[in-house]
Amino acid sequence: MSETLVTVVGNVATQPMLKNTVSGVPMARFRLATTERRWDRVADRWTDGHTSFFTVWAYRMLGENLAASLGVGEPVIVQGRLRVLERDDKREEKGQISVTVAIEAVAVGHDLSRGTAAFRRVVRARPELVEPQPQKLRQQEDAAPDEVPEPVPG
Questions:
Q1: Residues with Cβ within 8 Å of residue 109, at least 6 apart in sequence
Q2: Domains of the chain and CATH, by start
Q3: Which of 36, 67, 37 is nearest to 53 (CA)?
Q4: Could you say which of 34, 52, 84, 91 has the lowest number of CB atoms within 10 Å?
């Protein structure tokens, strides 16, 4: 069965928090608020309806970039996997179940219908792409300042 993907438009309700999982994977979390707007025919104006809150989780590079880019109150669009989490609530009477709705984000961006943004690409060196330094060059770096290292054949 395929996973449920949702797209939610709303505002950042809490400051994104970046942490690492036990295995060292970067993970960011924030609360997303979305309020329905509807036209009130009697009052002849737009009115706010119910506000829903979602916990948004983002991992790896998305989590790092999200934490560095978003602030409270900013309009965003979040797409991700919908998760409904149930657990026994210790604060309530026995048998009470607490339900949390979360989104494991696949993509997050500013809502450009409500403002502008400037994109900055993040460039990070991937260790597996960096060539190890040849032994000859390492020997040259370790040479004393008054010594002249041997030329390395090209």
A1: 76, 77, 117
A2: 5-119 (2.40.50.140)
A3: 36
A4: 91
Query: Which amino acid, residue 40?
Result: D
Find where tokens 């040849």 sit: 134
Q: What is the mean pLDDT of residues 19-40?
A: 94
* C-alpha distance from residue 62 to each of 66, 69, 93, 139, 146 (Å): 6, 10, 39, 40, 49
Q: Can you tell me whether residue 129 is helix, strand or coil?
A: helix
Other CB atoms within 10 Å distance of the CB of residue 63: 24
For the full predicted model, state whether its pTM sits above 0.85.
no
In whole angstroms, how far apart are CA 128 and each of 108, 121, 131, 132? Answer: 27, 20, 8, 9
Alpha-carbon 65 to chain mean position: 6
